[in-house]
Amino acid sequence: MGVSAAGPVPVVDLAPFHEGGLAGKRSVAAQVDAACRDLGFLQVIGHGVPVSVRDGLLDAWAGFFDLPMAEKLRWVVPDESANRGYSWPGKEALAYSRGEATPPDLMEAFNVGRRKQDDPYFERHRAFYAPTVWPDRPPGLRDAWEIYDRAASMVAGTVLRAMALALGLPESWFADRCARAIETTRAINYQRPAGAADPEPGQMRMGAHTDYGILTVLLADDVPGLQVFRAGQWQDVPTPRETLTLNIGDMLALWTNGWWTSTLHRVLPPPATAAGPVRRRSVARFLDCEPDQVIECIPSCCGPANPPKHEPVQAGEWLMAKILRGRQPPGAR
């Protein structure tokens, strides 16, 4: 049974989906549907990802971000469209993706792609499945990511199946269409060194944006900063250690004809009054559909009284345009 979170995001226990038979699946699907209609965000417990796996991944990425800048810059991938490798502080401003000119975001990040699989499909669409460049330090980083990624993939799969049932579709409807999805994991480090200047007016750790794809699974420290825009105001979202935070993206909102909501969110900078270093670590796993999938209104989400609100879009083209837009100020296009 779902319980209320400390903030605006509902908490859903996924365990009944696996253990409660058809009634359990329907209960979880109903809770997921309500969360997606109301806010597009939910937090899950009963997800089966051990705390040692979650902490191990956050600690491994922290080991990379603690390296000297000169070493981290070795792992920059010059091809922006590859969406891989290291992104230094100030390189991006995610509010650019909405056409909003803001100061650059106060974050650094590292992007990796999906685990290697032998399938001619990936070769045909290689622009969306660029190989990951793996840092040689710290040791064990790739192993920690692979262990977590397998677990997070199962969480995403469970939620996709619940989503399908919520829309009156066969349970595997979304999973079948996401079997070869574009998957990107972004490790993010928000850190203000002691003595650093205060942020510029309007500067965020991560600017206001919606996610671009289907489903995001977020692992984060329980450090304040994440906010969602709801009912005309920004509201804080705690990220308790026992939960994973999930949200839907623009592709799924389009697919459901706006029945589900892709919600604006951001990460605030540390308060100016904070003393000493301030750090928030997170790892976001983005599931962004197969690149040649055409996103058009799901039949159960439209009808004579509710016609499709959007033209069909090709998932890969939509995603690439959004990624590149988030790295260029609006006036530079």
Shape from CA axes? globular
Distance between the termini: 48 Å
Q: What is the average of the pLDDT values? A: 90
Strand order of the largest sheet: 1-2-10-7-12-5-4-3
Tell me about the largest β-sheet.
8 strands, mixed
- Work out the helix count: 9
Cα gyration radius (Å): 19 Å
Total number of beta strands: 14
Helix vs. strand class: alpha+beta
* Stretches with pLDDT under 50, minimum 5 residues: none
Report the portion of residues in β strands: 15-25%
- What is the chain-wise order of helices and strands? EHHEHHEEHHHEEEEEEHEEEEH
Helix percentage: 25-40%
How would you explain this protein's 3D organization?
With 333 residues, the protein is α+β, with helices and mostly antiparallel strands. It is 29% helix and 20% strand. It has helices at 15-19, 21-38, 51-65, 69-72, 120-124, 141-166, 173-177, 250-255, 315-325; strands at residues 11-13, 41-45, 85-87, 108-113, 183-192, 206-209, 215-220, 226-230, 233-236, 244-248, 265-267, 278-287, 294-295, 313-314. It has an 8-stranded mixed sheet with strand order 1-2-10-7-12-5-4-3. Strands 6-11-8-9 form a 4-stranded antiparallel sheet, with no helix packed on it. Helix 2 crosses helix 6 and helix 3 packs across helix 6. It is globular and about 60 Å long. 41% of the residues are buried.
